[in-house]
Amino acid sequence: MTLKIYGIPASRAIRPIWAAEELGLPYENLPLHYASDAVKAPAYLAINPNGTVPAIDDDGLVIYESLAITLHLARKHAGLGLWNGTAEQDAHILQWTLWAATMVEPLTTQWTQHTRLLPAEQRNPALAESALVALGKPLAVLDAHCARHPYLLGEVFTVADLNVASVLHRLADLDAEAFTSLGEWHRRCVTRPAALRAFAMRQKAA
User: Fold this and answer.
1) For labeling, which of 35, 84, 170, 171 is most exposed (least CB within 10 Å)?
2) For residue 173, is pLDDT > 60?
3) A GO molecular function for this record (predicted)?
4) Is residue 135 within 8 Å of 167, Cβ to Cβ?
5) CA gap 78, 93 in Å, rounded
C-alpha cells in the first residue's frame, strides 16, 4: 500500500515529503490546504482530530505531527539511511528533534506570522523582532555545534538534520555573519537531491 501524506507541500507536510524522498519511498500526496474546509470535515478529522496537516496513513498506521512522522518513517526504514545507529545516536536524534520543536519552532512561527502569514493589519513588527532576538541564543548553540561537525550526528546526514533544517527553512533572516557554520550546514541539507525534489513541489504548488 502506498504511503499517503496529507497536506500541501507549502506546509509542515514538506517534512514527511522530504523524508519520503530521502528514503526513496513511494507515496501519494493528498494536497489538503491547512486553511481549507477539508481539514475540518469529518472524513479528515477521523484521520487527524486536530484538523491540521500533515498526517499520514502508512499501510493503515495513521500518525499526525510532522516531526513524529519523519521520526517514524526514518526508524521504520532504518536501513535506508536516515536512522542508523546505536542507542546513543538514537538519543541524539530525539534530542535535536525536540530541541527544534521546543527551542526554535515557536519563535520561527512567531516571526513568520508577523512578517508574512497574518494579514498586514494583524502583524506586529515588535513581535517579529522579539522572535528574531530570542532566536539568537539557540541559533548560537546550533552554530557552535555545526562548527565542529558537518552534520548534527557527525559525518552522516540523518533525520535529525532533516527535522532541524526544515524547522529553520522558513526563517529567511538568519545573520550570515553571526551564524556562518549554521548557514553552511543548512545549505548542505537543503541542497541535497531529495530536498530539492521536495521543495520543487512546494514551489510548483505556490
Assistant:
1) 35
2) no
3) transferase activity
4) no
5) 13
Which residue is listed with cell 498586514?
120
Give the span between the Cα atoms of 106 and 167, in whole angstroms: 10
Residues 6+ apart with CB under 8 A from 204: 9
- Give me the number of domains the chain comprises: 2
E strand or H helix that includes residue 182: helix 180-190
| Residue 123 burial (C-beta neighbours within 10 Å; 0-12, 13-18, 19+) | middle
Helix (H, G, I), strand (E, B) or coil at 77: coil
C-alpha span between 183 and 181 (Å, rounded): 5
pTM above 0.70, yes or no: yes
Q: What is the mean pLDDT of residues 82-108?
A: 95
Check which CATH number belongs to the domain holding 181 and give it: 1.20.1050.10
Cell of 173: 533572516
Range of the domain at 77: 3-81
Span of 15-19, 38-42, 168-172, 177-181 with lowest mean pLDDT:
168-172
Alpha-carbon gap, residue 5 to 58, rounded angstroms: 9
Residue type at position 193: P
Q: Is residue 66, in this structure, part of any structural domain at all?
A: yes
